[in-house]
UniProtKB/TrEMBL annotation:
Record keywords: Hydrolase
InterPro entries: GTP-CH-I_C/QueF, GTP-CH-I_N, GTP_CycHdrlase_I, GTP_CycHdrlase_I_dom
EC number(s) from the headed UniProt entry: 3.5.4.16
GTP cyclohydrolase I domain residues: 25-190
Pfam families hit by this protein: GTP_cyclohydroI
UniProt key word Hydrolase: yes
PANTHER family in UniProt: GTP CYCLOHYDROLASE 1 (PTHR11109:SF7), GTP CYCLOHYDROLASE I (PTHR11109)
Protein name in UniProt: GTP cyclohydrolase I
GO terms of molecular function: GTP cyclohydrolase I activity
Protein's pathway: Cofactor biosynthesis; 7,8-dihydroneopterin triphosphate biosynthesis; 7,8-dihydroneopterin triphosphate from GTP: step 1/1
Annotated gene: folE
Lineage: Archaea, Methanobacteriati, Methanobacteriota, Stenosarchaea group, Halobacteria
Reactions catalysed, as given in the entry: GTP + H2O = 7,8-dihydroneopterin 3'-triphosphate + formate + H(+)
Domain of life of the source: Archaea
Length: 202
């Protein structure tokens, strides 16, 4: 093996780690199962390093230690903050294949606003787990409400699932899911819809 377990732990920080030995073993077995030779040139680093590292990154959302810090600033406003078109890449828990697209998020502040980049970082952190689109959408909405102590949050996710495109039904389509927390006024809902429509018109 090129990278020992302890070397990999040092590289990534132990509290952020997956079990590398298990991941290496599992990927090796999968390669054997599909008739590959895990020792052939081109595949050794695949099971020893690349896939375990990839899955460590793509499951960061399951580990609190990888959660971004949500820096806030005083702001005497309760006007909805809307952020549209955040790119997302997540993993379908049924087939371990990606689903990807965009997320739109909005929250009503209560005396404090969060740094704008943190909204993107938080969404990215949530996407990095094995999940379903509906659960991801709910997790982003309820997580943001908790993190920001925001009285109201709205989230929309539009995504294409490779498990539908590359296999199975073999059709590429877009799925839209929405989640909200708190009592949103009709005006706020309209503001969110307008921001999304404007983004789509660009
Ligand atoms: N609701 C929901 N379903 C999903 C999501 N990702 C994948 N699926 C669906 O999960 C279902 C799994 O169904 P199964 O019948 O157990 O699996 P399957 O035989 O591989 O299904 P097919 O994909 O239709 O071939 C499929 O219909 C997938 O399209 C998701 O994020 N949300
Ligand atoms: Zn799937």
């Amino acid at each position: 093996m090129t990278n020992s377990h302890s070397e990999l732990k040092q590289q990534t920080g132990s509290e952020r780690d997956i079990d590398y030995e298990k991941a290496q073993h599992g990927v090796r077995l999968l390669l054997e199962a599909v008739g590959e030779d895990p020792e052939r040139h081109g595949l050794t680093e695949t099971w020893q390093r690349r896939v375990p590292e990839t899955f460590s990154t793509l499951t960061e959302g399951q580990r609190e230690a990888s959660k971004p810090t949500m820096r806030t600033f005083d702001a005497q406003t309760d006007d909805l903050v809307v952020k549209t078109d955040i790119p997302i890449y997540s993993l379908c828990e049924h087939h371990l294949l990606p689903f990807f697209g965009t997320a739109h998020v909005a929250y009503r502040p209560d005396g404090e606003v969060v740094g704008l980049s943190k909204l993107t970082r938080y969404v990215r952190w949530q996407t990095r787990q094995l999940t379903m689109q509906e659960r991801l959408t709910n997790d982003i909405a309820s997580g943001l409400a908790d993190e920001l102590e925001a009285p109201a949050v709205l989230v929309e996710v539009n995504a294409t699932h490779l498990c539908e495109a590359m296999r199975g039904v073999e059709t590429e389509s877009t799925t839209t899911t929405r989640a909200s927390v708190g009592d949103l006024t009709e005006e706020e809902r309209e503001q969110f819809r307008d921001a999304i429509i404007r983004e789509e018109d660009l």
